[in-house]
Specification:
mainly beta; 7-stranded mixed sheet; globular
Length: 118
């Protein structure tokens, strides 16, 4: 059974930082592109960042330079360091895993709430 378990969300003031973690089980982690998506109330889910199994990274323009995605294959984990957070970054953040070859084999985590507010 595949599980993606996120942690690290919470409430932080504008300008603050958070680090999200996602631990995967039930997959061969090194064979998967990992990523983070987010969904704000009333909006569609959108890409935040992805990192391939070859460590190629892609960011949404809105987070480039403020967010950093990384992965630790030994720990089956992917991370998202978020700095200089803004109120518009408030959303549920979802961990995502997609097989690097079998593109229709993908999984989602349950999401973790990130709220940026003073």
């Amino acid at each position: 059974q595949v599980q993606l378990v996120e942690s690290g969300g919470g409430l932080v003031q504008p300008g603050g930082s958070l680090r999200l973690s996602c631990e995967a089980s039930g997959i061969i982690f090194s064979s998967y592109t990992m990523g983070w998506y987010r969904q704000a109330p009333g909006k569609q889910r959108e890409l935040v960042a992805t990192i391939t199994n070859n460590a190629e990274i892609n960011y949404a323009d809105s987070v480039e330079g403020r967010f950093t995605i990384s992965r630790d294959n030994a720990k089956n984990s992917v991370f998202l360091q978020m700095n200089s957070l803004k109120p518009e970054n408030t959303a549920v953040y979802y961990c995502y895993a997609r097989h690097s070859i079998i593109s229709d084999r993908y999984y989602w985590g349950q999401g973790t709430q990130v709220t940026i507010s003073s």
